[in-house]
């Protein structure tokens, strides 16, 4: 912190704070060098050099839509819906399918038809044109970045919906709700404040805020003959959410071999707490408030601060996650039946004195620790 005597006036043309007070369009803000880099005098020699943390986000936002057939007209209609919902894109990458190529030819014909009668309109259309790029033929793996989101949708959609016949409105509702689930996943924390549990999600790039879902009763355990059509749709969404959210947490904590040093948990890291009964698009987040390293300086017990209370949990060493932290199960007083601890398969638990003290406080004394963990289906990380 600096004292008030060191504060100086900054001219309007060098003050990025004026953009906030006066307002600026998001498209202009994207290319504003002053907003992202600050005034030029900050780069002079009299200012100390500092490293700016950069978060590389590799997970794109997901936009899902359905078409009635695989024709060029259907694709053009889908493209128009996308532009009016998300805004016009500068570049468009697509597969080299026949309907896409046909649509490109039709768009070029329409563009030439519009450009011929009026040069002013032609220059405007050229300035607002979209650069359309096609992947190599029979090589959809070139678009693996965005195909991963579509694959995640298809995997659970086939297994949950199966042979159920859905109308166009029902299927579109399912697709859009799944899109909301995929775009609600946490990416990185918004700040390093221990009391701030807000995270950046793909929905922030689309609508500027978190995606919220309607609170509905849990229908996953009810027979379908007791449900009407829209209740069945709700059940499908809830089943897809439960399966996808569990697999997503597992992907954040991959079980690789110990050939290289893993990142250790530290105070201030944001974590995702695994809970089984959360509604769709809701994630239980927390900050590590305290750590308990073992004799080998590896952290396996942490204290997590959530919006409701503090949890003391047993956590495996973190594999690189997008939250720069670890995914941990909720472990509160004597409630081990609702938890799962991810460890090496077939490993025998061995604990240090600090972990044993925690176990004594949460479990009965007349059972051996490995037996307790086997009974409840828990596996612990060996020291």
UniProtKB/TrEMBL annotation:
Q: Which segments constitute the Integrase catalytic domain? A: 12-210
Gene Ontology biological process terms, A to Z: DNA integration
GO MF: nucleic acid binding
Q: Which domain of life is it from?
A: Eukaryota
Family annotation (Pfam families): DUF5641
Task: Quote the InterPro entries the UniProt record gives.
Answer: DUF5641, Integrase_cat-core, RNaseH-like_sf, RNaseH_sf
Which named protein is this?
A: Integrase catalytic domain-containing protein
- To which species is this protein native? Trichonephila clavipes
């Amino acid at each position: 912190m600096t004292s008030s005597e060191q504060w100086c006036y900054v001219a309007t043309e060098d003050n990025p704070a004026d953009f906030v007070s006066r307002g600026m369009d998001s498209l202009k803000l994207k290319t504003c060098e002053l907003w992202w880099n600050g005034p030029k005098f900050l780069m002079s020699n009299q200012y100390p050099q500092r490293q700016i943390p950069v978060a590389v986000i590799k997970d794109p936002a997901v936009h899902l839509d359905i078409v009635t057939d695989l024709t060029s007209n259907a694709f053009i209609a889908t493209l128009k819906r996308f532009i009016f919902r998300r805004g016009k894109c500068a570049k468009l990458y697509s597969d080299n399918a026949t309907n896409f190529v046909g649509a490109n030819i039709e768009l070029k014909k329409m563009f030439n038809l519009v450009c011929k009668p009026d040069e002013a309109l032609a220059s405007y259309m050229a300035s607002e044109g979209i650069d359309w790029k096609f992947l190599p033929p029979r090589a959809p793996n070139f678009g693996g970045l965005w195909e991963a989101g579509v694959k995640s949708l298809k995997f659970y959609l086939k297994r949950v919906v199966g042979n159920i016949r859905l109308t166009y409105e029902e299927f579109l509702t399912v697709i859009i709700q799944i899109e909301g689930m995929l775009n609600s996943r946490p990416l990185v924390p918004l700040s390093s404040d221990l009391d701030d549990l807000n995270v950046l999600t793909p929905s922030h790039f689309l609508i500027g805020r978190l995606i919220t879902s309607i609170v509905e009763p849990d229908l996953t355990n009810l027979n379908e003959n007791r449900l009407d059509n829209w209740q069945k749709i709700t059940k499908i969404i809830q089943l897809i959410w439960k399966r996808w959210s569990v697999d997503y947490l597992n992907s954040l904590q991959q079980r690789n071999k110990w050939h290289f040093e893993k990142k250790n948990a530290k105070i201030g890291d944001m974590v995702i707490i695994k809970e089984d009964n959360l509604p769709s698009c809701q994630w239980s987040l927390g900050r590590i408030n305290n750590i308990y390293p073992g004799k080998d300086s590896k952290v396996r017990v942490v204290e997590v601060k959530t919006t409701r209370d503090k949890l003391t949990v047993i956590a495996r060493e973190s594999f690189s996650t997008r939250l720069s932290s670890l995914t941990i199960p909720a472990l509160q007083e004597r409630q081990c039946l609702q938890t799962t601890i991810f460890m090496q398969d077939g490993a025998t638990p061995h604990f240090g004195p600090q972990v044993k003290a925690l176990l004594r406080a949460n479990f009965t004394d007349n059972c051996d620790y490995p037996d307790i963990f086997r009974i409840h289906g828990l596996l612990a990380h060996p020291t």
